[in-house]
Amino acid sequence: MRKWEEMQERSFYESTARERAINLVDKGTFTELLAPIDKMTSPHLPILGEAVSFDDGVVTGVGKIGKRPVFVISQEGRFIGGAVGEVHGAKMVATFRLAQQSYEKIKEKYPNDYESRIPAVVISFETGGVRLHEANAGLLAHAEVMEQIQHCRGKIPVIGLVGSKVGCFGGMGFVVVATDMVIMSDRGRIGLTGPEVIEEAMGKKEFDASDKSLIYRITGGKHKYIMRDAAYLVKDTIGDFHKQVAEALKMSYDEVQSHRCIGSLKLVEEQLELVKIAAENNFKDATDVWAYFGNKKSDQIQDQFYDEFIREAKRRPRR
Amino acid sequence: MGMTMLGKGRKAISMILDEGSFVEGKIDEYTLPDIGPGAVIGTGSLKGRKIAVIANDAMVRNPRFPVVYSGVIGMEEAYKMATTVYKMIELDKDKPQGEKRPLVLIVDTPGNGPGKVEELFGMNKATGAYQLSLAEARQHGHPIVAMIIGRAISGAFLCHGLQADHILSLSEEFQTMIHVMPLAGIARITKRDIESLTELSKTNPVFASGAGFFYKLGGLEELVNSVDDMKDTIDRHITEIYKCNAEGNSEKCRPSPFPSPSVLKYTPLLPWQTHHTYDV
Fold first, then answer.
1. Residue B9 has pLDDT above 50, yes or no
2. Residue A195: inside a domain, yes or no?
């Protein structure tokens, strides 16, 4: 395996779940929990004649960034598109629970100085949502993860990273926006409904599922950054994601929370104002929305390099 | 039987609530925004108990969002639902545990708004917001019961149903549908013929569709076999949830059945959790 220093330069988009997990935290600090050696595999896939993966498509573990324990959940798109089955979901939930236990322990051990040591949960999403081979269990797992995020509120920052090949779709599209802070790269994608389903509902004239460029504009990192669904947009290296997570962990809990897009009545009211804008304008493309928020050269945004985009992008104003 | 409640969210409200008690569009003095007509929301009483109810009306279209009809939960509907839940939490914040008003979700929805503008503005945020609000309401001690009267499908069920303490469903005779994808779709994705999948699903409810399988899996608390029983059954479950909240037995009131009997073999990461002590 390549050195941690080298891996910091590596494309996040190209990296496996395990490479991301190990190298998102400080050098040499990552311990994998329920690693492939434990062979906790899906009990349902063999019944359907499908191959299993010894980690069920998700790497879970704990490392450190500075003094703080960082609980990592990293999904592997190469295994059934990172889809969430029963074991995969249970590993996610258990990681959240472990983070909360760790929080209580740290509070007890350092009553006067715990704030600089509280754990965080970092999820590196790469998933299409529910794994259809075990659909019902996958669905229940999603509900559980959502509940865990709510349980972490007021205690543990939960940070979502999206920059991998599969993106973050389906039911995990709910989970990612429920985190305190979303960090994306330009190549990351977030959505809920698949393009084919939208085409079926709207007709090919309104939405062409084969228009990959359109889909990228709508689901991609730049759009989510302008909309503030993503708090930060970083370059496509593991190191850039690592640095941004480390920055977030230097923030106070309240400051991290200030990047939430949902999770309170105030935020719901803010989003409702956006829905009103959506209803009143006949937006045909992401570029129309970018122009609405003051981006004059909205047709060039998709081709802009990172630095130029970050310098010039006009984002949705906060309330 | 032939009887079905599909598309009859409003009728279900009148069957479940005490006669004439339903007040739509308001939570006490607070008037809900006049949007999302597919989300029927209000307060009323159920056997004398004050509750709030959130239901789908499959008979209306949202005039502003063309893909939102037939019980689809669109952005307006979802944020209206979330607003309701947060308002309930706020209005009941000084009430002691045991007096936080219950929320009854009447479920008949085929999905989230599948549109371009929905993706542009974040359909996932809207129903995600609703899920978080329900999870928060439960934390505060509001009992939540979901009653499936028709369709409880995939992402929409995740939002409107799966965050409840207890989930009840009319049995399959009423043409209720609970699934992520119908078996035919799963057959296509898994490249198996539908006959062998149907056979397999009898012993493994994990990918099957239907209320019976979901009950077997542990995802439903109870199947209701008569529409006339909905009211009493919901009332009984509210009482049960209050009771297990008072006993601090939150595990029993989880939104989903982890660890359910079928899951138990694979999910008890608990031994792993207790053995592992991270050096703080």
1. yes
2. no
